[in-house]
Amino acid sequence: MSSIWYYMERDMIKWLRGRVAVISLLIMPAAWLIFVGLALPVTFTGNYLDFITPGILVMTMLASSMAGGTLLIFDKILGFLNKFLALPSPRESILFGKILFITIRGVIQSTIILVVATLIGATILSLAQYGMIYLILVLFGLVISGIATTVALYVEDHDSYAAFNTLITMPLFFTSSALMPYSVMPPWLRAIASVNPLSFAIDAIRSVESGMVPFIQVGILAILCVVVLAVCMQVFRKMTV
Amino acid sequence: MNAIETHDLTRYYHSLCAVDHLSLSINNEIFGLLGPNGSGKTTTVLMLTTLLHPTEGTASVCGYDIAREGEKVRRQLSYVPQEMAVDIKMTGRENVLFFAHLYGIPRAKDKTDEVLAVMELTDRADDLIRTYSGGMLRRLELAQALVHDPAVLFLDEPTIGLDVAARKKIWEHIGALRKSGMTIFVTTHYMDEADLYCDRVGIISKGKVVALGQPSALKSELMTDIITAKVSGPVSIPTREGIFLVGQAADEITFTAENGREALPYLAQALSANGAIVHSLSLREPTLDDVFLHAVGNQDEPRNFDDHQFRTMLRRRK
Ligand SMILES: Nc1ncnc2c1ncn2[C@@H]1O[C@H](COP(=O)(O)OP(=O)(O)O)[C@@H](O)[C@H]1O
Ligand SMILES: [Mg+2]
Q1: Is B307 domain-assigned?
Q2: How far is A156 from chain B (nearest CA, A)?
Q3: CA of B122 to the centre of ligand 1 (A)
Q4: Range of the domain at B42
Q5: Is the CB of B286 within 6 Å of ligand 1?
Q6: Among candidates B226, B227, B224, B162, which has minimal Cα distance to B193?
C-alpha cells in the first residue's frame, strides 16, 4: 500500500515544480472569493462573504478534482501507465495515488480560501467547525476525483476530457446553491439546485457554519464515497487486465 | 524451466491478427524479436508483460502463467516500453528512486546509487533530466528497470532514435546484463544490430515467426554469397550452375552464388571474355536483411526457397 504514497509523491513533486500551475491554482479561487464575495451588491443576506465561501470551497474542490483526471490521461498517453502497470505493486494503487494527490491538492486550495476569506472579513469558526468543513470537502473531493479518474481511463485524448470537464463543471456550479439561497431563486432553478450534488455539499457546509452538525449529510457523503471508490477500483481492475 | 515460454500465443485487434500462433522458448540469452514496423513486436511484449490479454494460446515467464499469475510474473520482469516515459521535472536520481520505492526495495537509496553508477549516470544524477541526451534517457530507463534485479528484462526498441555511439553503448550494457545471468527479450527493426548483439533472433512478419535461430546460422543457411560487379562495355551475362543473376542496374550487376569465392574468378573471366571491361568485383556475405527477405518470400509462398521471388526482393531493395 505504500506505493499509493509514492505515486502521490510523484504527482506532488511534479505539480510543485510547475510554478505557473501552482500559482494559478492558488490565486484563482482567491480571486473568485474577492470578486464575488466583495464586489457583488447583494441584499439577501447579512455577510455575503460567509454565504459565498462554502460555494467557492466546493466549487474549487470540484474544479480541482475534475482537472485531476487530466493527470491520468497524460500518464496514459505518454506511456507511464503501462510502465506502472507492469510493476509488481498492486495496480489499484496507481488509481488511489492519483485520487489522494488530487484530494490533498484540493485541501491545500481550500485552506488558502479559508485564510483569505477570514482575512477579508468572514466570520471565524470554531476548530470543530473547521474540522467538519474539511471532512465534508475531503469526502466530496474523493467522490469527484474517483469519478474523474475513472472517466479519464476511458477517454482517448486530452481534448475530449477537457470538453467533458467543461460540460460538467460550469453548469453544475451555476445551477447550485453556491451563489444565492433557495429563497431568492426562480422556481425552475430551485428545482434543479435542490437535486444538484454541489448544493448538497454546499448546504452541508452552511449547516456547519450556522452551528449545526449535519450527521445525515456527512453520512450520506461517506456512504457515497465508499460506493464510488469501490466501483472505481472494480472498473480500474477490469480496464487494466 | 525456461525464462520465457510461449505456446501458440495469438492476439487479434478486432479482425486484424497482430500476433499469430507464436511459439518460443527463451532462456539465458539475448533474444531479439526482429521485424518491420507493424509486425507485432510490441503486441508480443505487451502480452508477455501482462499488459494485454492474449486472444488465444498461453505463455509463461519464469514458470508463471501470464494470464492467471500476473502479479508473480511482474515480480520476475522489468519492462522498458518503446516510447520513453520518464518525468522531465524530476532529477535522474528521483526518477530511479521512485521506481525503487514502487518495487519495495529495502535499501532504496543505496540501490539507486548502484544502478545509476552501472548506467554511468552518477555525474548527472542530480540534474533535471530535461537536460539529458536521448542516450542518457534510455540508460536512465534501464536503471529504473534494473533496481529490482529482474530475472527477465523486456526492452521494446531500446535503440530507436539514438545516434550510433549511443546505440552501441546501450547494446554494450545489454551484453553486460546478459553476462550477469539475466534473460533479455529485446525487439528491434534494425537487423544489423540484432546480428551483432543477439544470441538468437526470431524474425517476425505479419505476426508470424518466419525464421528462428542464431544470426550466423540463419545467414549460413541461405548458402549464398552476394557478388556485385561494376562493368562497362558490351555485357552478356554468363550462366553457370550455382550462380544466379539478381539484377542489373546501369553498370552494376548483382549475382548470388552458392560459393562466392569460386564464382569470383569465373565471373571476372567470363565477363571480360565477352568483351566487357570489369572495373571491380565485390563479394559480401548475406546479412540478416537477406535472411528476412528470403523468409518473407517463404511465408507468402509456402513452398521451398523460391529464387525468383528472392531476386525480386533483392532488386526492390536497390
Ligand atoms: N491498440 C490497437 N488497436 C488496433 N490495432 C493495433 C493496436 N495496436 C497495434 N495494432 C496493430 O497491430 C499490428 C502490430 O502492431 P505492433 O505490435 O505495434 O507492431 P510493431 O511493434 O512490430 O511495430 C499493427 O498492424 C498495428 O497497426
Ligand atoms: Mg513496436
Answers
A1: no
A2: 17
A3: 37
A4: 4-219
A5: no
A6: B162
